[in-house]
Write a structure and sequence with these properties.
With about 425 residues, this protein is α/β, with parallel strands linked by helices. It is built from 16 helices and 14 strands. Pfam families: Glyco_trans_1_4 (PF13692), Glyco_transf_4 (PF13439).
Length: about 425
């Protein structure tokens, strides 16, 4: 029997065929697009890669500038006809000085590579993907030459800073200023949800007609459900799955506290938690798991290839999102929620506005940051396979009929036509 490893070439071919059926190849014919993203490499950044592929399918010549990352180390390459330029970053920043060094280096390389792309390929539009809200500094001088700027609003940075550092100080005010200048520079803004659209209009001063919602809908041609397996269960009957960044604001510490309650207080020794993802807090979280005497009940898979990620999501009994309830997480759409839904997994999360909008009845919602209530919601689902099946089906149907990437394509292309004044 052939090993069930994701065939990336087949997945890519399926995606291209899907786009060919969805996109008019002349809509952006002859246009030159540059996408600048700082926090993740492509094609690892799934949202940016879907945008780039879609724009190419619409006839544009697309280039992307991004950082290097594990497995994405080539300085220049062409992937599926898209020109990818990558640069190094000096460190994984923490603290004000670290961010200053990282952002300064990124701006230098982004400016250098933008000029290279302009010279080699030409540029009609620059799409800047935050964080941080500094890419407008690269785009602003080129607007003098008729180049348009589209701001792709991934994160609300003032709220993100406050969530990380729990204060509103000089740097928080600086985040607000950068956000304001970003919106003033942008010809058009792309919002990932309605909350972000409201911020663009109310806080950013953009005209409503210049703001387009493009959700990070999953690409269902790529998310392939894998066969049933117990290899991630560590010999236990039940498995919880988590996919995402291992950072301070992601609430993994709350999740570990919930697991400790289930295992130690309620005697649920039949549960294994599998965490897929990397990030600055990974080692600290491993230490916390050990301190809570949970090391044997938690698998830290790290940043995994798609085949392993899909394996975990296909075989988790329940998927979890422990993002803390704060202004940042309340207004943000988490990609993991839509991916859980795409794999027909029931979800437990804290009750946040955009999380509830995305998941609807495919999720249970715990009280704000209440680790015991979160644990009890998980236990409720583990004891009710019929409810899990029903919730998974609801989530999958919502993705298939409303949230998947094909439903986002018209808005993305309309944003570009608005910026370029294409009627």
């Amino acid at each position: 029997m052939k090993d069930n490893i994701l065939d990336t070439e087949t997945s890519s071919a399926r995606h291209e065929q899907s786009l060919a059926n969805l996109v008019n190849p002349t809509e952006l014919a002859g246009r030159k697009v540059l996408i600048v993203v700082e926090n993740l490499p492509v094609p690892f950044d799934r949202r940016v890669w879907m945008e780039a592929r879609t724009l190419k399918a619409a006839g544009a010549e697309v280039s992307v500038i991004c950082p290097k990352g594990k497995g994405f180390d080539a300085s220049e390459e062409v992937i599926e006809g898209i020109n990818v330029y990558r640069h190094s970053l000096p460190l994984d920043a923490s603290g004000a000085l670290g961010y200053l060094v990282e952002y300064g280096a990124a701006l230098f390389h982004e400016t250098r590579l933008t000029l290279k792309v302009w010279r080699r390929h030409g540029i009609d539009v620059i799409q800047g993907c935050n964080p941080p809200d500094l890419i407008f500094l690269v785009a602003a001088p080129l607007k003098l030459f008729g180049i348009k700027y589209i701001f792709d609003h991934h994160d609300i940075n003032p709220e993100l800073y406050e969530a990380k550092f729990n204060r509103r100080d000089f740097f928080w005010r600086l985040m607000c200023l950068f956000e304001k200048w970003t919106f003033k520079t942008a010809n058009v803004s792309i919002a990932t949800n309605q909350s972000y659209r409201n911020i663009a209009v109310e806080r950013g001063g953009m005209k409503p007609d210049d703001v387009f919602i493009v959700r990070s809908g999953p690409d269902l041609t790529r998310l392939i459900k894998q066969p049933s397996t117990k290899k991630w269960h560590n010999g236990r009957d039940k498995m919880l799955g988590y996919v995402g960044v291992m950072g301070d604001q992601e609430g993994i510490d709350l999740l570990l506290e919930s697991l400790r309650y289930l295992v130690k207080d309620k005697g649920r020794e039949d549960i294994q938690l599998v965490l897929v993802g990397g990030g600055p807090s990974l080692e600290a979280l491993k230490t916390l798991a050990a301190d809570l005497e949970l090391s044997d009940y938690v698998t830290f898979a790290g940043r995994a290839p798609d085949a392993e990620l899909f394996d975990v999501l296909s075989n988790a009994d329940v998927c979890v999102n422990p993002d803390r309830v704060n202004a940042m997480n309340d207004k943000s759409t988490m990609n993991k929620i839509l991916e859980y839904m795409a794999f027909e997994r029931p979800i437990v999360q804290f009750d946040v506005t955009e999380g509830r909008f995305s998941a609807g009845e495919s999720s249970l919602y715990a009280k704000d940051n209440d680790t015991i209530d979160f644990a009890l919601k998980v236990e409720e689902l583990l004891g009710d396979p019929e409810a899990c099946k029903r919730m998974g089906e609801v989530g999958r149907k919502r993705v298939e009929t409303e949230m998947a990437w094909p439903f986002q394509i018209p808005s993305l292309l309309n944003a570009y036509k608005r910026a370029l004044k294409i009627t």
